[in-house]
Amino acid sequence: MSAPTSKRQWQVEACTFDEVKVFASKASREHVKVDCPAGTRYFCVRNLQPIKSNPAGVVTVVEVTDNRLLQNDVLGFAALMLRHGAARFKADWVRPDYRGRGIGKSLMAARLAVLEQTHIARATAFCTSLSLPLYKAHGFREMRVNERGITFVEAKF
Fold it and tell me: What is the total count of domains within the chain?
């Protein structure tokens, strides 16, 4: 199944850690840590395209196991940890073939909406080179870079 190209065929929703932990090894290769400390909420983006089936409407085993996306498959996820009146944005990850389609922006918007609802005015994150431009576009400032090239950012709202 090909990636959506015209109208948006995915949605952001709250999800559980169990739903995203299956992507931990893929995400860790890009220096994205997938964990679930107390106070962490996960958001994911799900594919809304219908599952392809044969003319009789039956999804065959081949169709399910050949690495094509199925309806409701996770296309990306991100986490938000709230503690002591501050927020930590965590675990931003989007499937490589879906990057550049606005999924990261939608996940950012979902987390910013929680900050607005909870009146939290400060957020931090550790960003890879892939996520740093998104954070900077949303008002986060670079504070420092560690030895692995991960950038610590902060924003006040």
Answer: 1
